[in-house]
Write a structure and sequence with these properties.
This protein folds into two domains: 33 residues; 160 residues, Immunoglobulin-like (Sandwich). Helices cover 16% and strands 47% of the residues. A hairpin with a 2-residue loop joins strand 1 and strand 2. The protein has 196 residues and is an alpha+beta fold.
């Protein structure tokens, strides 16, 4: 009789565990299957929708207008419009090109949500037009992360070295948690005019 009761207890525990797993999957899985809408050109680009959240790009340059021969600082962050707060633990890939020529393609990360980039010593023609990144390589996100109290420095290359319009593409690959990739990157595209 004692064996029958133990057998019944194990069956009940198995059924409860299975029901918990099914309930968890039915609640968690749809979050990853919600559509993510892409972005298009504009300044600033419209907010991206991920689930019931609208994530907007917060992009600022210092000085306000990028000029050839000057350093350019960029602050890139993301805001959850519904919660009215910054999104933390953001990893994104940034591509910058001009006239179809790719000038920068790197991954950047910030635990606090805002990445500060400083473009320095950009030159008009170097063969090959190399740039270096002054920051720490984060192993977990495989991205550049700023040293405490400093921006990420991109030095050299042809980025913003010539008058004209540069195309920037940012694809967010993680948010809210360093270890969790988004099911589909959120993409923002916009132009950066460079003056003399």
């Amino acid at each position: 009789m004692l064996q029958i009761i133990r057998y019944s207890e194990n069956v009940v525990k198995g059924i409860v565990a299975t029901l918990c797993l099914i309930t968890y999957c039915s609640l968690a899985l749809p979050i990853y299957l919600l559509p993510v809408s892409g972005q298009h050109h504009g300044a600033p680009p419209p907010a991206a929708s991920i689930g019931d959240r609208n994530i907007s790009l917060d992009f600022k340059t210092l000085p306000s207008f990028v000029r050839t021969g000057q350093d350019a600082e960029m602050k890139i962050g993301f805001v959850d419009e519904k919660a009215k707060k910054s999104v933390n633990h953001v990893t994104f890939r940034m591509d910058i090109s001009k006239d179809g020529k790719n000038l920068l393609s790197e991954f950047f990360h910030s635990h606090e949500g805002t990445v500060n980039l400083l473009f320095r010593d950009n030159i008009k023609s170097v063969s090959p037009p190399n740039y270096t990144v002054g920051a720490t390589s984060d192993v977990l996100t495989n991205a550049w992360i700023a040293d405490p109290g400093s921006p990420i420095i991109v030095r050299g290359g042809e980025i913003f070295s010539q008058l004209g319009t540069y195309k920037a593409v940012i694809e967010v690959t993680t948010m809210d948690n360093d270890k969790t990739d988004l099911p589909q990157p959120i993409k923002y595209e916009f132009d950066i005019p460079v003056l003399e």
